[in-house]
Amino acid sequence: MEFFLGIDIGSTTVKVVLMNENLEVLYKSYSRHYSLVREKTAEALEAIRPLVGESPVRVAICGSAGLGVARAAGVDFVQEVYAVSLSVEKFLPGTDVVIELGGEDAKILFLTGGVEERMNGSCAGGTGSFIDQMATLLDVDMSELDGLYTKHEYIYPIASRCGVFAKSDIQPLMNQGAKKEDLTASIFQAVVDQTVAGLAQGRKISGQVAFLGGPLSFFAGLRDRFIKTLKLSPQQALFPEDAAYFIAMGAALYAAKTQPHQFGEIMDRISKTTGNKTLTNVLPPLFENEEEYRKFLSRHQKATVPRRDISTASGPAYLGIDAGSTTTKMVLISPEGEILHSFYSSNMGDPIEVVKNELIRLYELMGNRLTIAGAGVTGYGEDLIKNAFCADFGVVETIAHYRAARRFCPQV
User: Fold this and answer.
1) Radius of gyration (Cα) for the chain, nearest Å?
2) Among 38, 105, 140, 291, whose Cα sits 20 to 30 Å from the Cα of 306?
3) Which three-class secondary structure state does DSSP give residue 41?
């Protein structure tokens, strides 16, 4: 018996599919590689060894991170768009359009009315990594997104061409009290808008539309936004059970035409390259030796702020709050400029709650000895935090930076 093995090594994940001679899927796996491409590929393949035994295996590798592994293993590499077309032709005949979202890439494949493929550039906007970033900003687990989506009431316009632009849209909404449910729906809609506007670019998406890739497999809310935006009927929207594996399945179909290999040989070749630093270009170290490092520390420690144990201080104190886009910083100082207390934390999707909890803790540390004689706020959430906690004033962060820098360098 022969086996056909397809390996899809994408920007963030490794997908493996093993088929028999009847093109039936015997095994499949999906895992993140965390940039340990060869190590995680070898790990994923190790589970196949008992199924294959000594039988010959025909192998093909595809994906944005797969070419190096293919060369190292001495097996065929297949372009992923071609792999998708093979699997769609075999398992979803009659499909007119394919929309496939990966970890850092997105593509549309038009199969009728003139075959055409369109793919995103180097930016990961509107892909799985984009959703990852937004979930981190909201401080929610990826598994929570669909639950939040089902409770949304409003969708805000969010930029998805770039994660930085999206954060610039989302953070002010968070600071204004927008619900996570509505922000989740807005993030999913942003991905849809980026795909339709950025990739389709006016070409109509109609007929039988197949949705493939990990993000579309795992997020029902994302699938729902595509259906509603494209106005597709249930019969037109195709969400195959193995949508996350279709590229790997296509690679396995391609492998049927390649030369057979002994599975052990392939594993040996891949394993020998794991941890081989000569295959990677690395930057020079920041410091050539310990002496350079000590000079660096000495130079940067000249501008230090004196600290004082808060338990020994009494009288007036002054509070500064920097409500940033992703983090909250708080500093309590004495009239002489000594730091009595400092705090740094992620906003965790709820900057008001973070500030409130830290203020409660700060009041406990202050006891009856200290009084906050003045409080100022800066950063993205300046207005929100100032109004929520009745701070005395708000200041633009560039001016706040300037005032602090002037303390260390009066001529700045």
Assistant:
1) 27
2) 291
3) helix
Q: In which residue are the tokens 């920097």 written?
A: 322
Q: Which of 195, 193, 180, 178 is nearest to 149 (CA)?
A: 180
Q: Show Cβ contacts of residue 123 under 8 Å, excluding neighbours closer than 6 positions.
A: 161, 162
Rounded Cα distance between 386 and 331, Å, is 15
The answer, yes or no, to whether residue 45 has pLDDT greater than 80, is yes
Q: Which of 170, 191, 192 is closest to 182 using CA atoms?
A: 170
Tell the residue number behind the tokens 């797969």, with chain if given: 66
Q: What are the tens digits of pLDDT across the range 147-171? A: 999 999 999 988 766 666 777 788 7
Half-sphere exposure of 59 (CA within 13 A, CB side): 24
Q: pLDDT digit string (tens) for 341-392?
A: 999 998 876 788 999 999 999 999 999 999 999 999 998 888 889 999 999 9
Q: DSSP string spanning 333-393?
A: E-TT--EEEEEEEE-TT-HHHHHHHHHHHHHHHHTTTEEEEEEEEESTTHHHHHHHHT-SE
H-state helical runs in 212-262: 214-218, 220-230, 246-255
Rounded CA separation 112/332 (Å)? 65
Tokens for 282, please give them: 């690395």
Pairing of strands 315-323, 327-333: antiparallel
What residue has token string 């998805």? 160
- DSSP for 252-295? HHHHTTS-EEEHHHHHHHHHHHTT-GGGS--PPPS-SSHHHHHH
